[in-house]
Amino acid sequence: MEHRGRARLKDVAAAAGLSSATVSLILNETSDRFPPATVARVRAAAESLGYTPNAAARSLRTNTTHTLGVLTDNILTTSSGYAMIQGMQDAAWERDFLMLFIDIDGEQVQRAKAIAELQARQVDGLLVGAMYHRPIGTDSLPAAIPTVGFNAVVPGVACFVPDDLAAGREVTQLLIDHGHSRIVHLTEYPTDGLARDLRVRGFRQALEAAGIEGGRVLSQTTDHPDSQSDAAELLTTELLTGPEPPTGIFAFNDLMAQGIYRAASTLGVRIPDDLSVVSIDNRQHVAEELRPGLTTLALPHYEIGKLSADRVLDALESGEPIPAEVVRVPFTMVERGSVAAPGLGSAADASPYRPTSLALGSDGINVDHTGRLAGPELGECGGAVLPAGGE
């Protein structure tokens, strides 16, 4: 039989010698009601004709679209964003769901419009997230659609976020375990993100638990270059040529660690012999290319994406509401070669270089021994903590 255009259900029925109603039941996952030979005949006919069920018709019949709406802000072209999307897609694909993405620039008006558009397209569930760990305020979330936040704290819904507090403790503890006590944390500009504040708290908690005093937090400021890497290089140069230089530095991310490496190289300070460096990120194109390789905590972006989508899909299957909670997802340590016990000589003694001036303003280095940071203090989120193995 020759067909033109897209094969229809009645074409499959004719090829199989059965009624359209019978073929529809078999192809819509109720095949256990029919003899195996009949089911095989229908599926063979459908395959030979290139027939695929009409999703729109199925949606009308079941009042579902098997689609998850995903609302993000500027993450589709980032490596971290890709990992989250991959996690969501794997979860959705396992249950025969597709995803519909809208990527915005983060403005509240755009977010409300995007949510309305996703509702209009009858998505079954909704995932709302951000490029970096931060709060998202929105009053436009639909109450009737199961919704979960990812990499963001969204009021009134379950959210999966990186456990930045524990991450700050863990990388600091790694330095302490190797015998370091002169430890400095280099962090980013104050932003609306939660990671900065939580990692600093974790840093201070680890030092306090070990009885180590004087841990310093140095922050990139507006007097520094826009590049986090360049700012970290300036800060590290000041540290390593000043009194009591650190033997261990905890960098906010791998880009700042890259700047630390450059400063150390210029000054003749050896990593890890004279200076140990740890970070949070695991940007492989940075961490693996540095020499020695950078020991860093890998952000759990894939896990956040998959857990978030699974939570929505579970709710769709069970019909149960999703409890509003913040679930912190653990990081994974990737140990390379940037951490060792403190060397016999100080980092400053390892270099003859002494700068006469640096491109820093009077407050270019924000040193604070009290635990407070310049800029907005962001509250710690309460909620559950996933164990290292997952939920």
Description:
The chain has helices at 9-16, 20-27, 36-49, 55-62, 79-94, 108-120, 164-177, 195-209, 228-240, 254-267, 284-287, 301-318; strands at 67-73, 98-104, 125-135, 147-153, 158-162, 183-187, 216-219, 248-251, 276-281, 295-298, 326-329, 332-334, 384-385. The chain is of the alpha/beta class and 391 residues long. The protein folds into three domains: 9-53, no CATH class; 65-162 and 302-329, 3-Layer(aba) Sandwich (Rossmann fold), CATH 3.40.50; 164-300 and 332-378, Response regulator (Rossmann fold). The strands form two sheets. A seven-stranded parallel beta sheet has the order 2-1-3-4-5-11-13, sandwiched between helices. α1 packs across α3 and α7 (164-177) packs parallel to α8. The longest helix is centred in the last third of the chain and has 18 residues, at 301-318. The two termini are 53 Å apart.
Highest CATH level, the class of the largest domain: Alpha Beta
Mean pLDDT across all amino acids: 80
Beta strands, count: 13
H/E series: HHHHEHEHEEEHEHEHEHEHEHEEE
Summarize this entry quickly.
The chain has helices at 9-16, 20-27, 36-49, 55-62, 79-94, 108-120, 164-177, 195-209, 228-240, 254-267, 284-287, 301-318, and strands spanning 67-73, 98-104, 125-135, 147-153, 158-162, 183-187, 216-219, 248-251, 276-281, 295-298, 326-329, 332-334, 384-385. The protein has 391 residues and is an alpha/beta fold.
